[in-house]
Amino acid sequence: MLTEQLRVLYLPKPDHTQLAFTPYWWNRLCRHAQVVEWEHALPCTSENLAERIGGFDVLVTAWGSPRLTDEVLQEAKRLRLIAHAAGSVKFMLSQEAVQRYLIPRGIRVFSGNGAIALNVAEATVGMMIMGVRRWIDHTLAYRERGVWRDPAIPVNGQYLLGATVGLVSCSTVAREVIRLLRSFRTRVLIYDPFLPLQEARRMRLKPVDVETLFRESHIVSVHTPLLPETVGLIRREHLRLLRENSVLVNTSRGKVIDHDALSDEARTGRFVAVLDVTDPEPLPPDHPLRELPNVIILPHIAGAGFYGYHRIGELLVKAVEAVSRGMPFEGEVPLERYERIA
Fold it and tell me: 58-61 and 81-84: which strand pairing?
């Protein structure tokens, strides 16, 4: 049992509740906390939230929740936890707000990013296998042209088993990808200037620079957060190093890769690119990447999946319970390095 019952202001709409919570975890939240759901006939704006947040210990947010402005946080005098039933919180919570209100007051933040990462990691490994085995090419050759085993499409090669896989950033998603890759006996290279060498060794990763990663990898997968310094991180000189029949996967953010350079280098047909994210989304109809047969563009769906989504609700409830006891919880956002997280 909880040591105290917290008052929870719950902003997500019912369809999001069904997405993120199984009945068990929703009922458990309602049993152990005083949950007040937002009346959605009233627009959920920052102004309206500021008028109603006083007296609540926990604020539950989701995609589409309003920004937590100075006015909101000034009125949130009892607030102890912001529990985000989705991924990144940066669209609603600024670095300035973290420094001015959250850290001084000891307000903690939960994010479901780690739960969604499970889905993205599964999708990433699937994209790797799909790319190296050229399944889409074989399918279209047979369906559209009636060609069985088109000699222009490789039917053998270095697939995921035993491959050298290069990961750009050791992010939350990347760490889940690493866990899944162990079953495929891969050699994993990592580029992450913020990853301590001791931790890399513990995870059996080989830290390298970006050039070495692109030169030596059979598969390159991008997982870097979108920060001012990572916009255009992957440039023409890196893409030119991709080896013949390699695969480039991006499930992070489109802006991380120079799209003009990617269009030019992909046009050589030297590698397959699998892009769950682009810049912009969607790409305009005349964008050259949409015309290239070796570029597979997906509609930003890597994070979808019942397993990860339902895990959000489970972890959120456990976070609320942990806060009531003054305990640590999984999914806590590290506010001391907020500017560097995704």
Answer: parallel
Mean pLDDT computed over every residue of the chain:
96
Identify which of 198, 257, 199 has the alpha carbon closest to the alpha carbon of residue 223. 257
pLDDT of residue 3: 55
Nearest alpha-carbon partner for 252 in 200, 307, 300: 300
Question: Residue 242: how many CB atoms within 10 A of its CB?
Answer: 24
Inform me whether the pLDDT recorded for 1 exceeds 50.
Answer: no
DSSP assignment of 178-228, as one string? HHHHGGGT-EEEEE-TTS-HHHHHHTT-EE--HHHHHHH-SEEEE-----G
Active-site residue list = 253, 281, 300
Quick check: is 330 in a domain? Answer: yes
The pTM score is: 0.94
d(CA 71, CA 227): 26
Q: What is the pLDDT of residues 235-288, one digit of tens each?
A: 999 999 999 999 999 999 999 999 999 999 999 999 999 999 999 999 999 999
Residue type at 62? A
- How far the first Cα of the chain sits from its last, in Å, is 34
> Into how many domains does the chain fold?
2
Same domain, 152 and 61: no
Q: Are 245 and 159 within one domain?
A: yes
Please name which of 190, 144, 180, 165 lies closest in space to residue 293, comparing C-alpha atoms: 144
Residues 94 and 129 in one domain: no
- Per-residue pLDDT at 4: 73
Q: 3-state class of 169 per DSSP?
A: coil
